[in-house]
Structures are given as structure tokens and as C-alpha cells.
Amino acid sequence: MKLIVTETYEAMSRAAYGVIGPLVSKKKDAVLGLATGSTPLGLYRLMAEDRTVSYRDVKTVNLDEYAGLPAAHSQSYAYFMRENLFRYLDILPQNTHIPNGVAPDPAEECARYDGLLDRLPRDLQLLGIGSNGHIAFNEPGTPFDARTHIVTLAESTVRDNSRLFDRIEDVPKQAFTMGLADIVRAKTVVLLANGRNKAEAVRRLIEEDADPALPASALKQHEDLYVILDREAASLLHETA
Ligand code: F6R
Known about the structure:
Layout: E1 2-5, H1 9-26, E2 31-34, H2 41-49, E3 59-62, E4 64-66, H3 77-84, E5 96-97, H4 106-119, E6 124-127, E7 149-152, H5 155-161, E8 174-177, H6 180-183, E9 188-193, H7 199-207, E10 225-229
Parallel strand pairs: 1-10, 2-3, 2-6, 3-5, 6-9, 9-10
Antiparallel strand pairs: 4-8, 7-8
Helix pairs in contact: 1-2
The protein binds fructose -6-phosphate (F6R).
Fructose -6-phosphate is lined by residues 35-39, 63-64, 128-130, 134-137.
């Protein structure tokens, strides 16, 4: 594990871009696993601003999508990706993949996504982490060998995500998520965390043994894992505190 502790959110984002930028410059047809949420926004701004890098042949595969929200819905993750990243890049829309939140047959949609993940081995998977240690929407207790599935969101996740909705009742209660088995299949994994509310999950990830009670700990055995933190997310680590 390469643990990188930075001073600020901006420095964390720059450190992440220091991994992703050179990868895409070198490998024009890279496959990137992407995440939504507040954490990667600074990184996405850096990707959008750097006109020297082309995404013409890049493919992306996102981690998750709310069940019941169509891609055009302003709270869907498909919308988030278009608004915060894709519209600034020369990436082709058909090369960007996100689970279909309104698929008529959810089981078939999960199987379709698994097939996609098999066909498109990711060079890099970007991750945030939930305050309860979830990655993608793999909530505590998810088996490490899970593939794409529908999940009922933990109460803490609904609460955390409600800041982006008008009312907590509007937060969808279910989501499609890539499973832990597929997340760890990416060649390189970059997990970002900022802010005090991530510090305990980060501490458990770094200092405790792998345990499905902390889904992110499925990453511990990964051979090319970057954990990039700001000072607050690192604040409970015993070695760097
Ligand atoms: C998003 C995702 C989630 C978030 C996590 C942290 O696609 O899969 O696991 O990474 O909930 O969210 P933020 O970044 O908003 O704190």
C-alpha cells in the first residue's frame, strides 16, 4: 500500500492526478473505473482543465447508480458524471459506462455489468470511502467475493448522501453497485479520503486486519493500492498523527 498524506483537499486531488494523468498520457486507450460523490470533484476539475491529455480512446466504467433514477435525473450518477467530468473531456459518450438505474430486469442489468467488467479490464479504479467504510455501495457485511448487485443502502449512507437532496426522503434507498470482487480486479486502485468524518474508517483500513465489517479492507491485499488522504482524514492514524 502506498499511503500518501497531504495537507489539503487540493493537494490530495493533485496527488491523485499525479497517478491518473500520466497513465492516460501513456496509455491512450486506458480503461478507468470512476466514482461519484464529493471526494473526486477536485480531481475531476484537474482532469477537465488539462488540455494536454486526450480521452478520445479512453473507456470508463462507473462504480454505481441509484436504483429508480433514470440517467437524465439530476440526482443520478450518470448526470453527475456528465456535469462534473465528461462534458469537459473529448471522451465518447458510448465509451462511458454506468449501471442503468431503471433497467426493467435488475438481475439482468447486474449480469450485463459483470459481462462489461469482464470485457473491459480496468487499468485503474478510483474510489472514495463512506464514513462506515463502504466502497462503491458495498455496505458493511458485503462478502469480498460479491460481484455487481443491488443493495439496500445503510441508514448512515442515506444520511450522508441526503446533503445532496432537498429532503432525506428523496434519497433512493437502493442502488446498483459493482461488487468488491470486481473493484479489486483493477490493476491499480486509488482510494481518496478527505475530512474528519472519514478518519475512523481510514484508521480501520490502515491499522486493522481485513474484515467484511469494513468493506474497504477488501483492498488490503491489492498489490498496487494508493491511499491518498488529506490531513483530517489521516488525523486518527497512529503513525502519521
Ligand atoms: C460513489 C461511491 C461512494 C462514495 C462514498 C464517499 O460512486 O461509490 O462509495 O465514494 O460514499 O462519498 P463522498 O465522496 O461524497 O464522501
